[in-house]
Specification:
By secondary structure, the protein is of the alpha/beta class. Helices cover 33% and strands 20% of the residues. It has one domain: P-loop containing nucleotide triphosphate hydrolases (Rossmann fold), CATH 3.40.50.300. It is globular and about 45 Å long.
Length: 205
């Protein structure tokens, strides 16, 4: 069984101090509020109710950590870019997410969910720019792809890859649907490669 399919909830962290100690490679999931991130995690894990989305988009303020058997962990980051939340709440997200990316030496890869109907929004671009210094590889999943025709999916995939290349924001890109299952096996295989290839940090660093 894939380690992704062995996922089990570990803890929710509202502050950097709440993060679990590093133990093996870690995968981070990010995306705009309401983009289907929880559904994507559930689809990859082959579970219906592993990850939950907030009933009020943009209000989740924690990073949810999941154990992936003995292979590593998954970190589900709070959604970004929800305009109606208070400035103080957005600032707390910045501190939480910034603290995560600055401090996790075992980060093996970052998955960024984007709506296939509206990829690379201003918020998506801002997040990728903000993430640029992080050394971990990226995988962009164009979610809700079942809402597009086959021709539209191919066009969106090509356009997104070209735009990321033009901005020197190196990322793999996959068309993805939690409903139809498109891209699920390919994405899971990439995550497994990241987990297997991540070397542990040297002691003392």
């Amino acid at each position: 069984m894939s380690p992704i399919q062995q996922a089990r909830f570990l803890l929710s962290a509202a502050t950097v101090q709440d993060f679990p100690s590093e133990a093996g490679p870690e995968l981070a999931f990010a995306g705009r509020s309401n983009v289907g991130k929880s559904s994507a995690i559930n689809a990859l894990a082959g579970r219906r109710r592993l990850a939950f989305s907030s009933k009020t988009p943009g209000r989740t303020q924690t990073i949810n950590f999941y154990a992936l058997g003995d292979a590593g962990r998954l970190a589900d980051l709070p959604g970004y870019g929800y305009a109606s939340v208070p400035q103080a709440l957005r600032a707390s997200w910045d501190a939480l997410i910034g603290g995560y990316f600055m401090g996790r030496r075992t980060l093996a890869g970052v998955v960024v969910l984007m709506d296939a109907r509206h990829p690379l929004t201003k918020n998506d671009r801002n997040f990728l720019e903000w993430l640029r210094p992080a050394p971990a590889p990226r995988l962009v999943l164009l979610s809700k792809a079942d809402k597009l025709s086959r021709a539209e999916r191919a066009k969106t995939l090509a356009a997104t890859r070209a735009a990321l290349d033009a901005a020197a924001l190196s990322s793999e890109v996959l068309v993805f649907s939690s409903n139809s299952g498109e891209g699920v096996d390919e994405a899971r295989a990439q995550l497994e490669r990241w987990l297997a290839n991540k070397k542990p940090p040297e002691k003392g660093n």
